[in-house]
Design a protein that fits this description.
Layout: H1 28-44, H2 46-74, H3 76-81, E1 87-88, E2 94-100, H4 105-120, E3 125-130, H5 140-169, H6 179-189, H7 198-213, E4 221-226, E5 236-239, H8 244-259
Parallel strand pairs: 2-3
Antiparallel strand pairs: 1-3, 2-4, 4-5
Helix pairs in contact: 4-8, 5-6, 5-7
Length: 262
């Protein structure tokens, strides 16, 4: 019976048994030698480490995005139906849900894009989720959020929208927001709202739990979905600052599905 022989690196036939079985292991000396060769090779080709790191990061981001979309589908009722979340254009076929903090620098930078999106899409349902993640560091973040809930309850969507826009128009972020800013924004809203107590705190707690359920780790963050017929193919979860074009693309994707009946 013919048994193939192992071939050495020099090409000569070996007389010793060729091969290691699946359960065999390298000796410690062999393991050290292999590790040294691999380490030397990677030191000589650092671009491989960068490439592997980028691939792993992309895979992790894709996995997180998939999980966030699935979570958004399971949490759709809370995303769209919480009575304490201000809603503009409630009859809209596509919803844009934003989680934000008034003192977040990236929220402030994204605010003009959101306003431009609203102007360009009067039929889009906009849902604002007050999420004062900086409230522990800058208490007025929480005060502004609680006051926003009060404005919504007293004046409705248009009043809240004026309040919301007025606070971002101050440009006061990262600890710069003042009580006077909040009072002026309330005045612009046309209401006499003050920081809500228990009910507003409960609403903010629900928003916090919802953000965590979606895997959102910071502000701003957006969920864009058709109001009916939402699926993994037409829902977008967008973390971080975003352009008007990116938001519009997410709206268009969701709307195309809505027009087809889901």
């Amino acid at each position: 019976m013919y048994t193939p022989s192992a071939i050495s690196l020099s090409g000569a036939a070996e007389t010793t048994p060729p091969v290691k079985t699946a359960d065999s292991t390298f000796t410690p000396a062999q393991q050290d030698a292999i590790g040294k060769i691999a380490a030397d090779y990677l030191r000589s080709h650092p671009e491989l480490l960068i490439e592997m790191s980028q691939k792993l990061q992309a895979q992790a981001q894709q996995k997180q995005a998939t999980q966030s979309v699935q979570a958004a589908l399971s949490q759709q009722a809370q995303l769209l139906g919480d009575p304490d979340s201000p809603v503009l254009n409630p009859q809209g076929d596509v919803a844009v849900v934003q989680f934000f903090d008034y003192q977040c620098v990236y929220c402030s930078r994204t605010a003009p894009a959101v306003e431009a999106l609203i102007r360009a899409n009067p039929g889009v349902r906009v849902v604002w989720k007050e999420w004062p993640i900086f409230g522990g560091k800058w208490p007025l973040s929480a005060t502004a959020a609680q006051t926003g809930v009060g404005v919504w309850k007293l004046g409705g969507a248009e009043a809240y929208h004026r309040y919301h826009a007025a606070l971002y128009a101050t440009g006061h972020i990262e600890g710069e927001l003042t009580a006077a800013d909040i009072d002026a924004a309330v005045k612009q809203s046309g209401t006499t709202a003050t920081a809500e107590g228990g009910s507003a705190t409960a609403a903010l707690d629900r928003n916090n739990a919802l953000a965590k359920a979606l895997g959102i780790q910071g502000t701003p963050a957006f969920v864009v979905m058709p109001v009916t017929g939402a699926s993994a193919d037409n829902v977008s979860v967008i973390p971080g600052a975003v352009s008007q074009a990116a938001l519009q693309a997410a709206v268009d994707k969701a709307r195309a599905s809505a027009k087809q009946g889901g």
